[in-house]
């Protein structure tokens, strides 16, 4: 087995995950655990969250539609019952009314994206310094397109510092594709010039990893708060130290 490329998700891998923020939001609005995630997932590819990551709707339209769709208590409860059945857990009492502000929730979800995981960043730096691998990012992100309020700070497509960490930075907001679409993975493989079996992909979301494996890629799941386990698995796969600090001029 020869690995020639390592491909990283960004949110939940290189920077913090919105998962903890969603948990806080569910407590804030008195919702059962995983209710918001289940509702977002059930919207499918035509949901406002998914469309925003493909740059198909404006930021302001996203805020409005995101809040409206999540405030549809019947749709959200239906999605949550499906989730409970799939997870084989007892369905708790469900809400009879939901009022979610899409802009407020999105702000909560994006806050962790400002916090890099230094262990993962160091591993990326060591991979780049070794010159043995192509190192790429494959991220579902967004680029605000609409009439955001004047002076409003937004977190969207990867900034220059983040892009500079990688040989290739492949983002849904630019390409109009998003994970787990197989075409998005194929695009990444083409950009780094490797076959699926020559790439390892790190992500925190199961269905993204399943799509990558179906193409023949090696995969590593990054569990929330357990990036050290994922990096240790990557070290074993590549037979390479990824945790020692990078020393300028040192041969890796």
What keyword list fits this structure?
252 residues, Rossmann fold, DNA polymerase, domain 1, 2 domains, 12 helices, elongated
Explain this structure.
The chain has two domains: 136 residues, HAD superfamily/HAD-like (Rossmann fold, 3-Layer(aba) Sandwich); 93 residues, DNA polymerase, domain 1 (Orthogonal Bundle), CATH 1.10.150. The two termini are 21 Å apart. About 5% of the residues have low confidence. It is built from twelve helices and five strands. Helices cover 45% and strands 9% of the residues. By secondary structure, the chain is of the alpha/beta class. β4, α11 and β5 form a beta-alpha-beta unit. The chain has a five-stranded parallel beta sheet with strand order 3-2-1-4-5, sandwiched between helices. It comes from Rhodotorula graminis (strain WP1).
Average pLDDT over all residues:
90
CATH superfamily of the largest domain: HAD superfamily/HAD-like
Strands, count = 5
Proper CATH architecture of the largest domain: 3-Layer(aba) Sandwich
Largest sheet features: 5 strands, parallel
Spatial gap, N to C terminus = 21 Å
InterPro entries: ACAD10-like (IPR052898), HAD-like_sf (IPR036412), HAD-SF_hydro_IA (IPR006439), HAD_sf (IPR023214), PGP-like_dom2 (IPR023198)
GO molecular function: phosphatase activity
Organism: Rhodotorula graminis (strain WP1)
Pfam families: Hydrolase (PF00702)
